[in-house]
Amino acid sequence: MALRGGYITILWPVPCFWGIVLTKSVAGQRLKILYLTTDAYGGYGGVALYNRDVIESLCVDEAVAEVVCIPRVVFSDIGALPPKLNHDLAGTGGAAAWIRTVIRHVSSTKFDLIYCGHMNLAPVAWLAARLSGTPWALCLYGIDAWEKNASARRKFFASRADRIISLSRVTLRRFLSWCPVEESRCVVLPNAIHLETFGVAPRDPALEARYGLAGKKVILTFGRLDPAEQYKGFDEIIELLPKLRESRPDIAYLIAGSGKDADRLKAKAAALGLADHVIFTGMVDEAEKADTYRLADVYAMPSRGEGFGFVLLEAMACGVPAIASNQDGGQEAVRDGLIGQVVDPADLDAITAAITKVIDQPKEIPEGLHHFAFPAFRERLQIVIHGLVARAAG
Prior knowledge:
By secondary structure, the chain is an alpha/beta fold. It has helices at 46-59, 95-108, 122-132, 152-159, 169-176, 205-210, 234-247, 262-271, 289-293, 310-317, 330-333, 348-358, 374-393; strands at residues 2-4, 7-12, 20-25, 31-37, 64-71, 85-87, 113-116, 136-140, 163-166, 186-188, 217-222, 251-256, 278-280, 298-300, 322-325, 341-343.
């Protein structure tokens, strides 16, 4: 333990490349943070959710005076904003408007940190950091950081971040395989789960009736149905369903999400004689999300491109047994098999066996899920942010 510049520094023994220097402010410094992001409040999907959790963690930090968030886009109602947040929408009018808004804030305010919420925004974050002499952090989610043939431009900007924050070990490993960044500048900070918004409960009768699931054993997968992202595991579950139904004719497959790939998946299900057994919910309203998970007896996502697999946490938070992939970040969401099963997405027999093993289990929240609870996430993030600011201050 050492005291430097009013900060206590503690070295935490964790595995190799994702070692973390834990730092807690004791100097009473009031930090101003510039937060650059694609979307957060008024956004949807995993990236927006992660950004909201980061922002809320910063806004409850006593060492933070203000967070200025400049989103690129807003898709829906923004809702309530946390205290200390200046949510500037002036940049949502297009790329040029967004860049002008960033420069305006950097020119008028002395920030202690710039947080870049997406790889695609790294060039502007780097420029803002250079103009202001401010340290900056870059967040990696998943396939945005996996590319093996990244351009020299992409490598340049990503490698200039003072801190790389990755949602998973697998994403960080793949990023480091093409980007020249010292491992000491990297940290893994997985998604948070707000356990209080989920919990075990009976099926909602209205939802059960809407999807025709009465008396059914339900396999569920949540995800965007994007033709360019056919890695969620929808195809694999549809393909194994005929064999699974030979011994369990009461099984149905619920696909929750919307997108242009829905027609292809529906046609595939129909070709296998499963038109009545594969149900598509379309876009799920946030207010119905937890009850949609509670319809399931098993959550299965034999995916190949998940940066982490936050939906696995949500399913387990509703007491639904989870099956993840050993080929992406999903295995980290189930803590490498500690709180859920891990399978090879190419092995349909293994997926079938995993489903059969847990589909009749009573619903319960795995004890180890608390590792991802929001209070733990908040503490880890604050430690990373304080450490970066402390090192920049010398």
